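Bench notes, afternoon.
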Amino acid sequence: MSTKSKVAKNNNNRVVPKKYLIPFILITLLFPLWGFANDITNPLVAAFRTVMEITNVKAAMVQFAFYGGYATMAIPAALVVKKYSYKRGVLLGLALYATGAFLFYPAARYELFGFFLVSLYVLTFGLAFLETTANPYILSMGSAETATRRLNLAQSFNPMGSLAGMFVASKFILSALQSDERDEAGNLFFSSLSAAEKSSIKTHDLMIIRDPYVLLGLIVLVMFIIIAVYNMPQNKSKITSKASDIFKRLIKNSKYREGVVAQVFYVGAQIMCWTFIIHYAENLGLTKATAQNYNIVAMFLFLTSRFISTFLLKYVNSGKLLMIFAIGGVTTILGVIFIQGMAGLYCLIATSVFMSLMFPTIYGISLRGLEDDDAKLGAAGLVMAIVGGALMPPLQGAIIDLGTVFSMPAENVSFVLPLISFIVIATFGLRTFKYHLA
């Protein structure tokens, strides 16, 4: 074999070939951007509930708006990429992301909760485009043999954005909210203030919430300009079948259908656990900022467990391991429901250990064995399943607003929804292990 042929072969075997290195880096930098947005937004439910003096169910509309954007735009994003190119899909996603972030400025100016919801809804239009486009774009930057390793490398940067979002929420938003200040007994005194005092604090706190999003919009805008002017590969999504034919085939595929349902329940469970961990901790007398620190601990456990579970997948059937982890989630959530005090909070934090495996495993099982055309639009359906994060938190908020249920604190009882979710996921894991992968 000639030297030239050896060089070409070695380049093809690389996870990221040299010609794609810069484009790969630029697209990989997008992965922490949606992780950051996800985890800076979760604590806003508790923040808006206090400063806007609204119910838990209304405050949970933050999640309805945020994750509803995924449901609205995932399929259209896949169709745009199908017709044009990955680069155009990425640029449209960044434009929508920046627009939604900048809308926080007028939302804070007019102090309208509904305006904030619209801002989040538009922002997640952009996230839906980015998540639907960036994954297959990364896969296309090199040989098929190294595609999975390439995507895993890019995805490893997503949790870094999540941790950054949690850190900013804790140190620069929740800790700076004047509406969350307490008296010596640990009680909030915001509700007892005069209308004029409340108005001043409300204006201050909404600006505190606004500023990180406006800064985030500027960062996204810079990324838009860099990718727009750089000569990115114009790879098109290689979908040749009609979209209607693909959808028909996917609907007939029982494993895929069950996977989408499981993904809906998983995302709902994840968002409920990470959103209402603050409310659960507040009920124990902790401040929002302190409660968010527990959320950060949960994320560290989540990341650590993801590495461990990835290693275990080498030796254990993916469906079986998914079932085992889901049963673990059922166990810890039972502790959250029936154990009151700090022990219940620790059970809630421990639930993140078992959630770590679920999203990518459900994703992989659902698409396994599908033809290339079906897998690409099928991936959009799994992104759309993130709507679970929009539907379930308001239901949990409605339960919490009841105060007590069966003589138990409603905060504890509300976690029956994640409990049901983990049972659904365990069932999918069992069916995958027994039937779909048999």
